[in-house]
Structures are given as C-alpha cells and as structure tokens.
Amino acid sequence: MFDEGKSSSFRDVSGSVVNVAVVEHVVPKAGPSHALFPQVKYEGFEPSPFNDAPMIEAYAVSVADELRLHEFRPATQPFDLCPVQYTLPAPLTCLAVSSDKMAMGLASNTIVLIELAHPEQVLQIPISRKPTEMSLYKMFLDPSGRHLVITSHQGENWYLFRGWKKPKQLKSFKMVIESIAWNEPALLSSPHSTSTREILVGARNGGIYEAVLDAAEDFFKSQERYLHLLFTLPEKSPITGIRFDLFPPSDPRTALIIVTTPTRIYQFVGPPDRRSEESGRMFLPIFSAYRETAPKISELPGTLIYSELHFFRPNIDQASSLPKSLAWLTAPGIYYGTLNFEQSVDDHIDSTQLFPYPTLSQHETSTASTPLPQVPISIALTEFHLVLLYKDRLIGICTLNGKQSYEDTVPLRPNEVVRGIATDPVRRTYWVYTDQSILELVVRNESRDVWQIFLEQRKFDVALQYAKCDESDDSCAAETATSDAQNVETERIMLEEDLRHFLETYKADLDRDTVYELIQGHGRTDMLLFFATVIGDHEYVIHHWILEEEWSKAIDVLNRQSDLQLYYRFGTVLTRHAPKEMVDAWLRQPALDPLRLIPSLLQLQHAPRDALSSNQAVRYLNHVVFQQSNTSSIIHNLLVTFHATLSPTPSDDGPLLRFLTTAPCDPLTGKPYYDLDYALRLCKRASRIQACVHIYAKMGLYENSVDLALEKGDLELAKVNADMPESDLPLRKKLWLKIARYVVQDKKDIKSAMRFLEDTDLLKIEDILPFFPDFVVIDDFKEEIAHALEGYSAHIDELKKEMDEATRTAESIKQDIAELRNRFVTIAAEETCSVCAQLLLTRQFYVFPCQHTFHADCLISLARECLPTHALRRVLALQTELVKESRTGPAERSATGATDVQMGQPVRQRTLLSTNFVGPALQNGTKAVAPLGRNILSAGDKLRDLIIPDALAAVATAPVGWIPGIGLTGGKKSGSDKDGEKRTERLRAELDDILASSCPMCENVVAGLDKPFVDPGEMDTTWAL
C-alpha cells in the first residue's frame, strides 16, 4: 500500500500545478485491513472533485462489515486491501501497471503516469480530444513500462512512449483494441530499445493483427512500422485475451499463441519466422497454416459479453521464462489450468478445472430469497489463488483445492463504481481501482497454509517445502527427518572437501591417467572434473562438457584458462551450439587471431538463428574491424559476405550499407580494405541493388551507379550519385541528363520532369527539351519555358551592361595611352648614367619612370643579363637585320656619318661577331635567323656573348633628323629607300620594345630576392678581418 509522507507541488506537461503526496511502500500492521476511520492529512492534495460528505456513513458501513467478517478470518490474511492516498483530478476509467509504473486514464481524456519508485513524480498528459468526441476504453502497458497503447470506444488508438510529452495517434489502427500480447523476452532483455518488436493485437471485430511500433524519430517512417491482419475468428467475437510464448527458452523454435473470446479459447502452435528482426511477419507462417485446418478450440457457452485471460509466471527475474498457469473468466466459472510446453503434445493446457463462482451472503447482495452466484467484474491470478472482484468486495479462491480462503469489502463512497483489477506481471503487485479511488491488494503470506493442502493430496515432498515446525506434530516429524537427512548430507560434503584438499595438495605426485581411471570407475564425474581442473587439464574438462552438450559450462571453462589454442580447437562446435556465449568469450580475448576463427564463424552462415537476437558472426567481425582496427582484407570481405547473404530480406540493405559507408579505408590509397570487385559480385548475386550502386560510386564508375539506380527505378538514389563527382562538372551534367532522359522518356511524366529541374542547377529546360516527344502539349511546361526566357532576357541585359562597361573602359585606356605619348621628363645637364656614372647627355640614352637613366649601350649590356632565352634569340636576330640594313642602306650610312661628325666623334666601323657565324647566308635576309638560332641554341649562355652593346646601340638608335614614318629629312628618296627606312624603323621599334619594356635594374632586384648573396663555390673575403 501507500503511506502518506511529505507533499510537493510541481507542473505537469500541460502547465497546470499538480499537488501530490510523496508516498512509499510500507507493511501494514496486523489486524483488520482498515482503521475505523482513516486519519488522512490532505495537506498538499488538490480538493476532491467528488462529494465527500457521505464518507463517514460509507466507512461506517464498511467497518461494520469488516468487523463482522473478521470473526471468521485467520489471524493472518493472505491478502490485505490498502487504500492509496491520491486524489484523482477526474473520474478514473482505466488503469494499467507494469514494472512499478502506473498509467491511469481519466474521463477528461488525460493520461496520468506515476513511477511507483518515485511517487512524487506525477505526469499528466492530455489527449487532444474532447470527452464529447472520444471516451477512453482500455490501456495496455508493456512489461517494461515503456510503451503505452490507449484505445477508445470510438476506435481511435494512441501510442505513448516513456519520456514523450504527448501521445501520437495510431492512424492505421482503425479498430477497438480488446487485448495485446507483448513480446516479453525482447522488451525485458532490451531496456534501451525504442521498439516494441512483434506484438499481437486482438480487436473487437475478431481480428488478430501483428504489429511493430517504434518510438525512434525517423523522418521517413512513422511509429507504426508494421500492421497486418493475420487471422479472423469465425464467430468474429471480441478477442478478450491473447498471449504468445516461444519455447524452449534456450532455443525458441516453437510459438504457442492462446486466444480467448467470451465463450471460446483457441490454441495456435507453430514455428515463427526466425529470420525477421524488427520488420514484422514473425507470426504469419503460424496463422497461415490454420487457413485450411482448425486450431485447438475449447468452448464454454454462455451469455457473458466480456471476459479476461490471466497468466502466472513463477520466474519473473528471467525474461525468457515461461508461464506456469492460466485463468480465464467465463460465464459458467473460472477456467483454470497449467501450461505444458512439450513439443509432442496436442493440447498445451493440462489439469484444467472449472471453478464455479461463490454464492455471496444475502447481506451483500439483493433481497432475493435465494442468492445466486454472481459473475465477478474482474479477476487476478496469483501463485496459489484466484482473486475475484465484485461490485463491493474481494474474494480469494485457492487454486489447489477450489475453496474460498479470503474475503474483504471494498470501501466505497456513495455512487462510487468499481472498475477492475490491474496486475503488475513483473513486480507481482495487484491494484483495485474504482472511478474515484485506487487500492492496493498486498500479498502477505499466501503460501502459509498450502503445506496442509499438499499433505492432504499426498504430495509429501512439496508439502515438506512449505511446512513449518510450529504448525503441527506432523510437520515437526518432517522437520526431524529433514534434520537427519541434512546430517548425512553434511557428512558427505565434509568427505568431499577432504578429498578435494588431498587432490590439491598432492597433485604433483599423482599420476593423471591412474587417478582418472580410479575416479571414473566410481562414477564421480564431479570429482573427476575437479581433479582435471586442479592439474590444469582444461582440454579434458571442455571435451567432457561438449560430450554432455553442456555448452555454457564448456565455454565457462574455456574463459577461465589462458591457452588460445583451445579457442581455435573447440570454437567450431561451440559456436554452432552457443554462438552468443562463444562470441562473448572471443571478445574477452583480444589476442585471438581472427583469421584462425574463420572456420568457427562460417558455422553461423547457414545455421538457424534466433529471431530475437542479432547475428553473432557479424557482431564479432564488427568488433574486430571497428574496435580492434583490423585491416585484413579477408576479414573485411567476410563481413561483407555475412551482411549480403544473411539479411532477413533482399530489400533490407541497412546493415550492409552502413558497413560499406563506414568501413575504414587505407590511408595510402584511400580505398576500403574490402575488395570492391568481390563485394560488387556478391551484392549482384544477392540482389543488393543499393549496395551495388554504392560500390560503383566507390569505384568511380558513376555512370554505372546512376544507370543501375535508374534501372531499378530508384530516382532519389540516382540523384545522390549524380552529384558525387563534384570536381567534374561535364560528368555531373552528363549524369543528370541520364536521369532527365529517364524521367521524360521512361516515366513519361512531364510535370515530374519540370519539378526535376529544381533539384539541380546544372540543367536548364533547353537541355531536356530534346527528350520530349515530337507531339507534346506545351501546357504542362509553358510556365517553365516562360521563366527560362525571362532568365535569358535578364542575362542578355546583364551582358549588354558588361559590354557597355568594357567599351567605356577601352575608350578610357585609349585616352590614357594617347596622353602617355605626350609625356616628357626634364633631365638636368649634370644627370649621369645609372651604370657607367658618366654624363647622360654625351650619348643616346633612356629614361624610365623609376628615374633610372641609362646610355643605350649600357642599357643593352644590363638587359642582356636578365632577358630570357627566347628574348635573347630575338634580340640577336634583330641585331643581324639592323647590321644588314646599315651595310646596304646608303641613307642610313650617310645619316650615321653625319651624326658622328655632328657629335664630334670619329667614325669607326665595327664588325659584329654574330655576322661571321652565318657568312653568306645573311644575304638572304631574315631567313638566316632560323639556321643561326639552331646553331646557337645549344650554346646556352653564349647567346649573351653574341650581343655587342655598343655596336647594337650604334645601329639601333635613330640618327639626327630621323622622323618616325618619314626617315631622314631633306632630299628625295626612291620607293625602295622608303621601304628600307620603314623596315628599319619597324626593327628598331621592336628592339626598343624588348630592351626598354621595363627597368632592368628594378627587375633584377625583384628577381634576385630568392638568390643567395654569395653563389655556391664563390669565395667571399669582404667580411675577413
């Protein structure tokens, strides 16, 4: 029960302030279940919405009945009914409890959640439906307490996962749910899973559905992962109870499904689809087998329109344990039986009994002269009792003898209605609830008197287990016999301990084979195994347990020794029979060589697999690859093989794709360690289309990947692969054109083709127009064409603006060039050459914008040191041409002589060294340049020696009176002279452009920034002292 403690207030998810009392489990005192009037302090509670004025009268009546019944009760009752100190904000309609988590459904369409371990934390979650639109019918809470399904009278169903702020409607569940069979082993063994795994849903219309719900957030999937109608009962009555169990627990190969209606109980037996993980269809083969044949049916006719089915599971701490007994509420009585999970039996319900309903005393019922048995509102099943809930009381019937052993009244206010009993199958707690209150039915000492019943049934061994020595003389005698047996057992244990001590002390002095033969001759296998363990003969122990088919014990011995060779030797047989335990052992030994474990791993390739567990070979290989960073291509290829061949369905490419995308790659080559060609062949053979597309992309075969995706009709996958070659725009456009051709010509969907253009910026409408049929209605894409034309028009306008801007820029440049022609520099008379430091005005000179000044011959000497090879060749050719012109042109010779006389310098003709290299070939004009270039090309730096600065300056500078385009002034000239002057002017202008294009002194400074001050091999003595 709950006891009142401190109170606290907080806000629920709706924002309203909720005041609750902090409650905790306590053991009630001996005596009656309730005091005369409970002195409850309602500090911190909300005001009750009900009328509490008649409370005193109601409790007075209940206390009177309590005292009257107490005269006939034993000193200690097997149960105790304790009220819960909690004020309901609205009438209660339904309640569910599991794993110490309570869910209440109120008439205001509000769900109240309480974690009984922390009762101060109360969560109120409203459903977005008005009470006039929808009314709650039932709630179903899974064994782990994480998944809650709410159904209504109108057929609307809702799903709430632990931690959610509001429920989500199950839109495909268009039915009134009467019962749900949860997947208990999967839910209790996976505390962090968000999936319900496969569940069975019983509907009011007689249909049995298989469903999978998953609370994980997935953009492409809803919580309703799967819903399928498996079977419809012929009478189409409401399915009031349903449950399935997989057996045997160690290797679940068979499923037993029990279904009840108000008048019938069905048994469906068959092997489930063990390949399915979380994709549903686990029970489809079972029900498919009953389409032609009828299942096992038991019928108890009656007019009752409701029913209940309950099971009792003794080993609640084991997730895969099987129930022991069942109880079915029917009109004639309670159908009770034990469950038999043997493979060979036809009827799995044994020792069936029909317990009739008790006749209530007249003061508890109507004023009829002859009281009749009444059908209870609800029932609950404990280990030894059936608890029946009536409109004003509880009655307990012992399942061992069918006799009534408990009765208690339910304290009710006026107009308070009893709703039912909710059972927590994991914690074994029982809760009675009305529309205004909640009471806990606490199990006290249920097995206190069962030893007497077993004794009457002559089940002495069982009676001895429950007997106590202060009960009777018989039980004391039994205790004495037990004491004698315990003494014998103690003596035997002491002898065994002495033998064990002897073997441990003298193990080095004992012959192994002899001791083996002696102990084995006495049939003491336990001592034989102990001696083998003491001397370190683990191979013998493991071999023994394998012969006994005790796989877990063999693996346990293997874990306790350090010889890795035993893992390789026994790995094959142990992996085949206990794959999970064997893989766990491998994971604890990182020194194992995975390559030597491949024969063991291959045992799992074709072995049957548990539908509730993952493939253990994949689990180990993932650990080796990702945790141990194994780079062996054999291991990686084996993992690809398992993923490609062991998935439940060919369409389930998720695990394979996850490995292909996350597999580590070789840092040197950038390629994965698995063989791409092998993986491609394997995936093609297994019809893994998405994996093949991914592998093609890994291999750089983007066209093949897009073609394969389009071949299978996966347009989105083709788009993803078309964008992979980011650096190759032509290839990307080609791939997108393939997809466009597929959309237009294969799918023949013009509108989709228009929407397709929005997915990429590489294609325009004119790119896909050639794919359209010749006779196509333009109405489907006239808007796109109009938008394209508007875009082109805007682009043309931008180009026009750019052209106008370029024209203005060109005009501005021309104007700047014209202004540069008129630019002049003022030079002082004492200005000197930057090279020879002589007066600048004594010879022809050049002036640069950087204020450097050079004589013509000094500039040539400086420029030839920094000019590249091709420029040197051109200067040498121009030098040859100008020398030739100076020799053949009289006008140039006279002009040169006049210039020399005018300058006051003697005329001295100098023969250039370059002219002697070609001889008569120079007489052929510019054709001599080519052979000269070929002859001196191999000379390298000797090109600079062929250029003579002073002689080149003499023939390159214009004489006094020379006017560009006109020549020397004065005197008439023939046409050939004019042509020669123009040619000479052109050659001088070209030579001037090469020599005076930039200041050589400034250019040498920039070009020499990365050169050392002292060349390699040069002796620098400037720093010597």
TrEMBL record:
CDD domains: RING-H2_Pep3p-like. It comes from Pisolithus microcarpus 441. InterPro entries: Clathrin_H-chain/VPS_repeat (IPR000547), Pep3/Vps18_beta-prop (IPR007810), Pep3/Vps18_RING_C (IPR058919), WD40_repeat_dom_sf (IPR036322), Znf_RING (IPR001841), Znf_RING/FYVE/PHD (IPR013083). GO terms for biological process: endosome organization; intracellular protein transport; organelle fusion; vacuole organization; vesicle docking involved in exocytosis. This is RING-type domain-containing protein. The keyword tRNA processing does not apply. The keyword Zinc-finger applies. Keywords: Coiled coil, Membrane, Metal-binding, Zinc, Zinc-finger. Its main location: membrane. It comes from the Eukaryota. Pfam families: Pep3_Vps18, VPS18_RING_C. The lineage of its organism: Eukaryota, Fungi, Dikarya, Basidiomycota, Agaricomycotina. CHCR repeats lie at residues 589-752. One of its GO terms (cellular component) is endosome. Residues 833-866 form the RING-type domain. One of its GO terms (molecular function) is protein-macromolecule adaptor activity. Residues 782-823 form a coiled coil. It is a peripheral membrane protein. It is found in: Endomembrane system. Belongs to the VPS18 family.
